[in-house]
Amino acid sequence: MDLKNQVALVAGATRGAGRAMAIKLGEAGATVYVTGRTTRAQQSPMSRHETIEESAELVTEAGGTGIPVQVDHTDESQVKDLLHRIEKEQNGQLDILINDIWGGDPLTEWGKDVAEHDLQKGLQMQEQAVRAHIITSHYAVPLMKKNKRGLIIEITDGTDYNYRGNFYYSLAKVSNIHMAKAMAEDLKEHSITSIALTPGFLRSEAMLEYFGVTEENWKEGVQVDQHFIASETPFYIGEAVKHLAMDQDVHRFNGRTLSTWELSEVYDYKDADGAQPHWGNYFKEHVE
């Protein structure tokens, strides 16, 4: 299968996993709406240099059709306008929704409990990682229901409901998992599949910069964190999303929380460098 007749929305595709997922959907031929706050004319509070225009161009170069749209997904009116535009431009079709809005890294204060953590930063994390996902799903799902098909993927961190080391971070990521499960129950009669998906130790642009390395010499990052040796590029989760989108029997995963390493065994894909990292096994052997 390919995705030449499929329309996707990757909410939060300016960089990292979002960009890679959009590119991989494009690689299979999909039309991908790439959203985010940073454009060539305006930078978001993240103060990063990547833009949605660049992401869309990479989608098109990969073989699909990339369409950049500047959207702040915490703003209901902007999301409503976005879905109205998709409905108009694509004759009411939307097949794939990837809820990847995050931006919570600079908001997370590790080592602080719920009372010590900056309250406004913690609430903003919920605004971006939870409320924005709800708003986007609210306006996207009607298009899927109308066409009686669809795939919704909530991007999270971790496969369980265990505590993740910070009250606000944990609340956001566990919420993503439960949203996927709740929508799976809500929408199963409409042939819509809803799942949560987690990467392992993600070797994103920001993480490479944090460790002071590039993709060419990334293994030197183990001098900062020994577990970096088991990291994966954003294209690993991109491969996971592409294979899920092309799987005619994807509904068998409805309501589940999946991982890049688990799906690499199901679909036998590899990372951009030819490796097949398995964070689940590594975590059990070297971290847990």
Q: How would you describe this protein?
A:
The protein is α/β, with parallel strands linked by helices and 288 residues long. The protein has a single domain (7-203, 234-277), classed as NAD(P)-binding Rossmann-like Domain (Rossmann fold). Helix content is 43%, strand content 13%. It has helices spanning 16-27, 52-62, 76-89, 119-147, 167-187, 205-211, 234-246, 260-267, 279-287; strands at residues 7-11, 31-36, 65-70, 96-99, 150-155, 192-198, 257-259. A seven-stranded parallel beta sheet has the order 3-2-1-4-5-6-7, with helices on both faces. Strand 4, helix 4 and strand 5 (150-155) form a beta-alpha-beta unit. Helix 1 packs across helix 7. The longest helix has 29 residues, at 119-147. The protein is globular, with a radius of gyration of 18 Å. The N and C termini lie far apart (39 Å). The model has no long low-confidence stretch (mean pLDDT 96).
